[in-house]
Amino acid sequence: MRRQNPAPVHGPFNAVARDCGAMIVSVRDARASERDRLWIEGVYRDYLDDLTPATATGMFPALGEVGHREPDQIARWFGDRNAFPLVIMQGPEHVGFAMVARGSSQPAQPHIDYRMAEFFIARPRRRLGIGRVAVQLILNRFAGRWEVSEFQRNTPAVTFWRRVVAAYTQGKYQERLFNDEVRQVFDSGPARAP
Ligand SMILES: CC(C)(COP(=O)(O)OP(=O)(O)OC[C@H]1O[C@@H](n2cnc3c(N)ncnc32)[C@H](O)[C@@H]1OP(=O)(O)O)[C@@H](O)C(=O)NCCC(=O)NCCS
């Protein structure tokens, strides 16, 4: 994978990508284009539905950041200066989105720079390695101390994040189980980039 130069987190973000099958995967700031925001709005219900079986409530209890009415929630993300809505592309096509937020979801964790508040790959594009590549691009771009949380019963998400974080950090991460949430804490940046 081509390494990213550190860059300020404000302003357009268009990560250079890596081959994933026949196409290049890339990540960019969704605020730059109305089309990107509309795509997120179009798949947000799928995302909530994917979380629902794991939580039985429709909430993402690790963060409490989904489960509101979709338009309200998306508007909140796009209006929050401490949030970074991102779209994930495979070639010219939208295949996923991520919401990166500053700081921890836990007030008692002041040392966290970023958390992955939401992460989604469209159903037909799963198990192709796209999520893994997108996470690498995002972690390189937002260098710092990270927190990722997933509901323990969302076993695909737990497996995914364990695999991706373990590979990215070469096993140098902390994991805790707290209130049915699995939480990984680790450092990202050029020194960690695979
Ligand atoms: C979880 C999710 C992001 C994974 O995205 P993806 O692009 O399919 O993941 P990848 O193909 O990059 O998978 C990387 C590795 O994660 C693991 N993994 C991914 N999906 C998995 C699943 N459903 N079951 C078990 N392991 C899985 C595998 O080890 C996989 O490597 P492999 O395919 O070589 O075995 C995607 O399934 C998704 O969007 N789910 C719904 C929303 C969600 O739960 N988001 C996370 C909230 S915390």
* Cα-to-Cα separation, first versus last residue: 7 Å
Order of helices and strands: EEHHEEEHEHEE
Strand order of the largest sheet: 1-2-3-4-5-6-8-7
CATH homologous superfamily (4th level) name: Gcn5-related N-acetyltransferase (GNAT)
The structural class is: alpha+beta
Unreliable stretches covering 5 or more consecutive residues = 1-8, 56-64
List keywords for this structure.
binds coenzyme A; globular; 8 strands; 194 residues; Aminopeptidase; alpha+beta
Architecture overview:
The structure is a single chain. This protein has 194 residues and is an alpha+beta fold. It has one domain: Gcn5-related N-acetyltransferase (GNAT) (Aminopeptidase), CATH 3.40.630.30. The protein has four helices and eight strands. It has helices spanning 34-55, 70-79, 130-141, 155-169; strands spanning 14-20, 23-29, 83-90, 93-102, 114-121, 144-151, 174-178, 181-188. An eight-stranded mixed sheet has the order 1-2-3-4-5-6-8-7, sandwiched between helices. It is globular. The relative contact order is 0.16. It binds coenzyme A. Coenzyme A (COA) binds next to helix 1, strand 5, helix 3 and helix 4.
